[in-house]
Protein 1
Amino acid sequence: MSMNVGLTVNGERKEVAVRPMAPLSELLREGLELTGTKRGCETGKCGACTVLVDGKATKSCQRLAGQAEGCEVVTIEGLADHAGDDGDLHPVQQGFIEKFGMQCGYCTPGMAMTAVSLLEENPNPTREEIQDGVKGNLCRCTGYTKIYDSVRYAAERLEETTVESARGDD
Ligand code: FES
Ligand code: FES
């Protein structure tokens, strides 16, 4: 038995058939083949499955797919477009590249989505605020320091973009 869930994913309206008790992570990975969203603990502890639901970082293993009916979901695959329509990577993605915020990369999509949500709420976080903001996402490779550097890099790029657009620069 399955049910249909209607939602918007990465800007596109979708209607997806899922098991009634399927989590949102299953809808994304198996229903839409958006496998950038990772499965880790599936108990809400690791954050590997984090996506944006209506703009908020959400552990998609902890949300029933049916609860996402009518919601706007952004996954790592849609993050560049979420940043704008110029085709560039989101500053958070650029930060992880520039500051070496990943090793195996398994935690990175969830970590990036959490960082995006954090920076939307607090565009100029201190080191401690970044540390606190991503504490629900576990990484077993990096020791976190470079992840914090990556998020700080993104905050600075976003600040520059805001200043440039206020000045009317390209
Ligand atoms: S897989 Fe969702 S929090 Fe770990
Ligand atoms: S880079 Fe490997 S788990 Fe974070």
Protein 2
Amino acid sequence: MSDTQSPILKLRNIKRRFMLGETTIDALNSISLDIHAGEFLAVWGPSGSGKSTLMNIICLIDTPTAGEVTFDGQDTHLLADDELTDFRSKKLGFVFQNFNLVPVLSALENVMLPLQIQNVDEHSARERAAAALVDVGLERFKHSLPDKLSGGQRQRVAIARALVVNPKLVIADEPTANLDSENSRMVVELMREMNRARKVTFVFTTHDPRLLEHVDRKILLRDGNIESDEVGA
Ligand SMILES: Nc1ncnc2c1ncn2[C@@H]1O[C@H](COP(=O)(O)OP(=O)(O)O)[C@@H](O)[C@H]1O
Ligand SMILES: [Mg+2]
């Protein structure tokens, strides 16, 4: 099978158990899932259904209790910690509920950060970050500090920061949870546009069913199980 057909991400029988004293919480029971290049996918479900636990495993921040995670053909279980960190910084982009921008850095400097971590030289980092801000429609705000931006604008800076490394996959855990419905819709539409125009693969989570009209595929999680996996809006 060629690279374009094999999935970017393959999860097989993923379980994640948390132990809290005497209590055992099975946050994920047995999740198997393939994500292919170019997909625009939402994982939705009520609070506590396991969405964040699943996202942390997909973005290689957390390790499952059992099961296999294959990312871009690599069995991630076999990677050492430093290899994992390198893998993560080159192949994955992240968008968070709380935007996670550095408050003392301008929008441009925030977007430059992942490139600086990869030791891209200052000049190229600045140019690539500026281009990424143009892509999300924030050229005019590149020298603004995050607290001078609206929530929707901050999340657009965070999307530019996720995309600037040309990741294989962007993971967004509840990217709209702190936004009003108008800004939520704008953020999802922006991700959709980046998906269409630049073939970026996105997985985002939400508990808001109104955002599902924009996606190609939606996976409903309930109590750590996939209850449905539907293709088509
Ligand atoms: N670090 C943790 N320690 C203990 N329990 C956890 C931890 N993270 C998540 N859980 C539990 O796992 C379940 C799924 O949580 P989570 O993945 O955060 O759901 P969601 O993101 O859908 O709200 C919940 O019962 C939650 O309390
Ligand atoms: Mg969550």
Protein 3
Amino acid sequence: MENYYVHKLTDNKGDHEVHVEGCNKMTVSENFKNLGQFSNCRADVAEAKKNYNQVNGCFYCCNECHTQ
Ligand SMILES: [Zn+2]
């Protein structure tokens, strides 16, 4: 299980990116909301979509869930 976070702000495509704790793209911690522990990024993205319409996995830490 990994601890997942979602960015409260959108990137330049309007996506809220999800990250695994410790990802070096998570620079300003106050901009991230902890979603809890999940066994994979797909479960995390599903949870994040309850809060945000447009969610994407981080290219670096959630590459399996990253879409263009
Ligand atoms: Zn990341």
Protein 4
Amino acid sequence: MSDDAITGVDELDARLRRGDPVILDGGMGTELEARGVPMNRDAWSAVANLEHADTVEQAHVDFLTAGADVVIANTFPAGLFALEAAGLGESFEDVNRRAVHAALRARERAAPDRPVAVAGSISPMSAGADIHVAERSRQELLAAYRRQATVLADAGADFIVTEMIQSVQWHGPAVEAAVETDLPVWLGVSAGPISEGGSVPPLNFAEESLDQLVASLVELPVRAVAVMHTDIDDVDGALDVVQRRWSGPLAAYPHHGEYHPPSWTFYDLAPQELVRRAQIWTDRGVAALGGCCGIRPRHIQQLHDALRGDD
Ligand SMILES: [Zn+2]
């Protein structure tokens, strides 16, 4: 049913408050790669916003047709430093703006009669192994993230999801910049496997503590905390940590496969297996479910049918 008074983000917030299931999309960068779009060594799937905009839009359409309530614009790898390394620093605003517009057009095409929220993504990601935000000053990081957050908000994103946050020091400024906009913000953390000592580290930051990361960053006014770009087998351990520090809305959208920059190696995952895991996560209070890298529209379709089949 159409209800012009309900925007996608209002409905999203209402569902999250009630604990009703929200279906997220799957991995956009890997979806583009699966469709034959070249991945850039430095800016991964971000270049597609300029050169393969129709494929970006169609991937969003396919996730929406599968039943997603939320689509995340292809801005995850479109940070200033990644684009500068790719020789596209001057196109920074254009790349981000086009990504949001592709998601907004997909919503008009594929979901004109139901509430869908379009998120802009901010992450510290760059595909090239030789670009490290850790080489930047805090002020430089904050300024770059502010530029991206401002463009995403200006281009029409309903909310911002900060993705692959693994370090307070290096990635915290992304969350700070996002909450400075007037948009709702989700904190998306990535976790590695539980260590032999029983602690859960952020992904690829074995020396840091996920517990301390979450404790510190939920001090900022975030609306939800997501365990994302985390191996499907490591989500439960991460949720154990997050739920000790955060009692608000939760999201889980894991990945499945392996990243060998700039390409993703897909592992076969039966959609019903994602559904089985998602049902475990909903039972423990996770409201928003979807997928990250390696998770495709067919997975989201079965997730939707299992969790929202009454729609
Ligand atoms: Zn991912």
